[in-house]
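protein-glutamate methylesterase
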Amino acid sequence: MTTALKLAVVAEDNLQQHRLRSALADFGCEVISLSARSLELKGIDHEVSAWLVDLREDDQLLEPFLDLEQPVLFGFEAAPSKQDKAYPKWEKRLYAKIKQLLGRDILSQSALSQDRLEAISQLEKRSESLPLPDKVAPNKGTVAENVWVIGSSLGGPEAVKEFLDSLPEGLPVGFVYGQHIDNQFVSVLANVLGRHSPFTLKVAEAGMRLNNGEVLIAPADKEITFIDGQVVLLDKPWPGPYGPSVDQLILNTHAAYPSAGVLIFSGMGNDGAEAVTCLQDKGISVFAQDSDSSASAAMPDACRETGSVSFSGNPSAMAQQLVQEILTRQMTHVSVDTSMNGAK
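Tokens:
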């Protein structure tokens, strides 16, 4: 099991200290927070991996940090509250600075390892799949019209597996999946999650179409989008500090499929919150895993903080809600068609 990264925060302002600590905890870090006074009394802990220091430039307590072997990040913009619309961007900038300071992507490395994938592959199916409603015609292999974006990080693969295993075979829906992950594990993830699922999982490649009964997993190293219903693999990394960027994946998918819904599962950080905020007035459906069933509730909680989430529940409940939503959409479509035919 990966040991949590130990970081120390030193700040004069108590609110700034609290918000920095909270954000770092959302990244899965063990955090020590110190005021200037407590630092003066306790001294420097040489066992931490890095220091985040927000003190006045003329403070004498800065001097010891200049000669430390451990990496030190100095000076921070004022941290907004989690309810502030500026918070997701602020947290992303903070994560980018830490990633640059440490020279590694702590979210992707923490979210999934070879050991964790092997453990997931041994998981038995938790329950029987839901039945396909009588009024929903089974459809698999044709181009998907009901499209949903899945986003997750730490604890996400286990939750997504339970969700997919619960869905009925033939449900007319296709998924695009963004999981914080090292790119070497993306194809393994597809095999592991597809073990009991009625859905076919594939790593997204250029030219692919998203069909009913399929889950396209976004690569971690290169951004993808959709043009004329086909996957386009862009020759550039995902923007921002996360790989893949769930925010960007949501926006790119929504540009091609304007009615695409969003499903946010367990994960560290707040990836996805910025995109659902941008799309808040578009009337899209956003489901988020509840805190109690999440290994890390930071990602789904961040989306809930935006006010955009229309349903919260455990993975099985999310599957049930999705089936109901697709049934409602189909019934509405049939009702509209019947009304139009009657008017002719």
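Confidence is low (pLDDT under 50) at residues 335-340.
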